[in-house]
Structure formats: structure tokens, C-alpha cells
Sequence to fold (353 residues):
Amino acid sequence: MSESRDTRLRFEQWAKNPQCTANAISAVHNVRMSEVAKREGAPITFGQSPFALARGQTFERSLFREQGKTMLEALHKARVLPEDRAGFADFRLRMSGGKQPNLDAALQATKDFLESAAKASTPAALAALPAVLAGPVVRIPGGLMLPEAILVIDVMAVQIEGDRPRLVVGEVKTYPDRAGFTDAGELATARAQAGVYVHGLRLVLADLGLTDALPVSDEGFLVLTRPGFNRPSVRAGESLQYQAQRAERGFAKLRVVAAELGGSTDPDIVIPRIQAAPTSYCESCLSFCDRAPVCHKAALASGDPTVLGDEVAHFLGATTLHRAFELMSGAEPGNEAETDLLARIAELGERNG
Fold:
């Protein structure tokens, strides 16, 4: 029951390609793309690896052992928190190594904390607030996911800003932090997911009337692993302002999607709607969506440059691959954009000899 109510994974699915209407319908109506792909005769390739899940659980539990000692030390080192900030509050379920018996208890405990934190204004009350929150759980108002939109946030830090606290969202991932060589796509996805939590948390605080008393920072942090072993590497000061704004726009679309089909989650009703919905194929689809081969085939037939990667798509803009090949084969450009494209292609050719 807890797993079916926790919509975190569905929010993450949507955040990986929020431009795709079919992906949004799948996430909102809780019908997996693997079920759609199965009906289309496509191979199912993106089941969750039990080894990856076990590693992720092991890593997260290690961060919060001994009252969050490892997490707190890492946040001090990364200067997310000053050395004098301490304290730990655990909202995780027992099945995840925490203390809460179920999601309802975790939701209530999180709500109680937010309301008490908003009232803290004296130096003593502010100092008594925990610095690290493990797995806070919130219900986002507004009918975004069916039957309800519940988010379990990996970790939050509580900073003190003048005479009030400030919440800082953190996202935990198990892939290694290789400084300048960390996978850019994975970092972008993690930031997008963190931006969803920032905006979602702000909606919750607004619903509780706590926006002014308990602000959420535009900057968050990512908790990755160190190459070769499960020790945290914190990337502090991650700007989430754009990602939160994008989430705000996306949430409006999700509400529309959730209202369609009479709120049904019946696969026999939802799957035809997913199949008929517009798609937006992108490079990241290959890493998470079982319908990616279907969309790739359609994109290839239409000459969508994304089939060669997002960078090629950015370079060609609105020009299809078919038209680009024609231009490179001697066809006359039909407009200013095609003239500019030919000039950029020629410039690249000169650079590369």
C-alpha cells in the first residue's frame, strides 16, 4: 500500500521528459509504459534492477545511521550547513530504516514539523530545530497524480536565516561524482527532480499558510557517491530556480491530464489514450522508457534530428534530417534559417579539416 501511494517514482518518470504528453498520462494515471509497450509487441527492457535498488537503499541508510552522522558531516564539509548546526529528524518508514509505521504517520509527522518550525523565531527555538530531515513526506494539493500526489523527499537541510528557518532540498543518487566528468544528463535529471520537490514543497507550505514563515531555498544540493565506494559527495549550491519554474508550468499540465478520462486508472481505458497522445522523443528516453524504440522509429521516419542525439537536434533546430541531407547535397536553401545552417555546417567542416 505504501509503495502504491508514494508517487515519487512517477514524478521522477515525468520529470525525465515533461514535454511528452504520453509520458505524462502514464505517470499521472499510474499505467506503466512497460504495459503499453507489451501491448504494442515491444520488448520490455527497463525493469528495476534488484541490485541497483539494494545499492541505493544501502547508500541512503548509511547516510542516516547514528542520527544522520554521515549526512550531517557531509553537509558541514560542503558548507550547506555551518558547523554549529546539528540535530536530526527521521520521517522515513520502518521498511526504509526509519521510525514511521506508515505513510499517514509520516505525513502527519512532517506536517507537525513544518508547523512547529514556522513558529520558531527566538534564538533558542531556532537552534533547537534539527539540521537534517530524512525522508520528509508531503501531499501535494491540486490533483496532480491519481489517486493522490504524495512525495517522499530524500533529504532536507534546515538553515537559519536571520530570525527564521529556511528549507533546502537535497536529492540522493548513487552514481559517482566525477567532478567535471560527472554525467551531464544524469545531473540534469537530478536537478529536474529536485526542482519538482522544491515547487511541490512550496505548494504544500502555501496550502498550510506557512509560505512567509518557512521559505524554501532556490538552491539545493545533490548527494552522490564517491567513485569506488559508498561515501557521500555533496554538490552544494545547485541552482533549482529554473527547474522549480519548469515544474510549476508542468504541474498545470498534469492537472489537466489528471482530469481527463474521468480520473480512471484502468489500463484498458488509459493505454489507448497513451498510444494516441503526442510524444516528444529525446535522448533521455532511451534510459527509462520501454516505448523508446517505438518513438525512435517514428522520429527516424519523420527525420527528427533527436535520433542522433540532443546536441544534433539543437544544432539543426527545426530542420529535419531529410532536409539537412538535401541541403548538404546541394539543394538551395529555402529560407534564412537554412542559409544559416549551411554556413554553420561549412564552418564546422573547415574547423575539422
